[in-house]
Amino acid sequence: MRIRPRAGSALAALPALIFSGSIYGGEAPDLSGIYWATRYSAKIELVGGGDLPLTAAGKAVYDSNITGLKDGSIRDDARTFCVPDGLPRVLSTPYPFEIVQAPPGQVTILYELNHQVRVIRMDKSMPDYRELSTFPSYNGYSIGRYEGDTLVVETAGFNGKTFADATGAPQTDGMTTVERIRKISPTQLEIVITVHDPQYYTRDWQSRFVYSLRNDVRIEDYLCGEQHRDISSVAGARPR
Amino acid sequence: MTGAKAQCRTGSRIEANRADPKEGARPCRNTPSVAIRSRCPIRHDPAYPFHGNLDGPGQVTVRLGNYKDPVLKPWAAAQMRESNEEVLSGKREIPFSAQARCYPGGVPGQLLYPAEPFYFIQTPKQVWMIWQRDHMVRRIYLTDKHSENVKPSWFGESIGRYQDGGTLVVDTIGLSTNNSYIDNFRTPHTNKLHVVERFKLSADGKTLEALVSVEDPDTFNEPLHMVQRWRKVRNPLLETVCAENNGDHFDQNLFPIPQALQPDF
Prior knowledge:
The complex is a heterodimer of chains A (240) and B (265).
Chain A lengths: L16 E3 L13 E5 L18 H16 L5 H4 L16 E4 L5 E6 L5 E5 L7 H6 L6 E7 L2 E7 L19 E10 L2 E9 L8 E9 L27
Parallel strand pairs in A: 5-6
Antiparallel strand pairs in A: 2-3, 2-10, 3-4, 4-5, 6-7, 7-8, 8-9, 9-10
Chain B lengths: L73 H15 L29 E5 L3 E6 L4 E6 L15 E7 L3 E7 L20 E8 L5 E9 L8 E8 L34
């Protein structure tokens, strides 16, 4: 053995593994499965309709995002380099995703698009601002709880590098979200997200997404720039 | 986590990478759990010994595989030699490495990622292996049959079963070949690659060991056997995004990271 880990070096983060136990038990509603949207919208659609309630600062950033995405001076990293979409954009994915109510104390959401992984901690409380801002991330830090038939997920600690949708709707790293995830029929999943981002929006706003249960498909490998699955069944998603 | 035993704190490096380069095709003496029938994995070119970041003080070198290994079919040897020469000539200062360049490591190559944890999620019908690094995911379906038509992919189709109570046996086929290697020496494979991995926790629960056999009659003259070990820790699964800050800042002609010229939708 010639390996000499030194205190404080990157070796402190040595390879590791959590070998988990059985699936989540108890009174949790069964939300596990593979889901796939049937329609896609590049522009986020608000519950109750209407336009995003942008502040003046939000409008300025949105306008500059729209212009920049069009002329190429702003790059959409989620589509170009396949970094995670973040919330709420990932909810609009035209590719399937799966919800795994495991390991114990966790719900894991795995998206085919950009092979994103979201960890929802069912046994933790939200860290304070200092802790969250130390390790901001695209998908943020999520905690969850069950309320009856609904999984309620609160997320904060975003990195502010994302767009709220494919048109470049702006968001800050101070955003927080609440998702309410439930089955609305044996074969349909609904996610309603509430977005709180007062720097760019005059009020909290909501968006609703519905997905079909599709346990007949398997999530496929996804690598940026490769040919991926046929998504022509998803209305509004531009076919390749 | 502290107090890990010496033999397991290395985590994820294939044992053979540290072995005597002159050992050649002799049985893998570093794989005690395997009977002495094992043909070792490909190692570094003896003319260019590998010195990695974990090998203590000294100049770190790049990985140049031993293309002269007699287990290789001529096409594979030629391809590896070409890849080595690209590095030796200075054309590409750092050779392709899947996880450094944001590509899936394939099977079994993904097991080689050394620097961040990976996680198992187990349910009665399926096992997920999730690498924190670039959130790579492998799925293992707990069934006894492969699909009739497997569409080739980076991680192929893995089926698994539990054997003798404590061993997860994973059988993988359908591995695509473009930029896919079985190791960090850029040892190639064909679409006949068949990998069997046996994952087992040590009796004290502190170490996970994977015994891996790699068969590919169009690439190797006989199956290769290898072992990988990890220390078990209780780290939270964090988000590490490979494509961030991964440009070729020092003009080393790095292999380009995956990029979509046209968005999918």
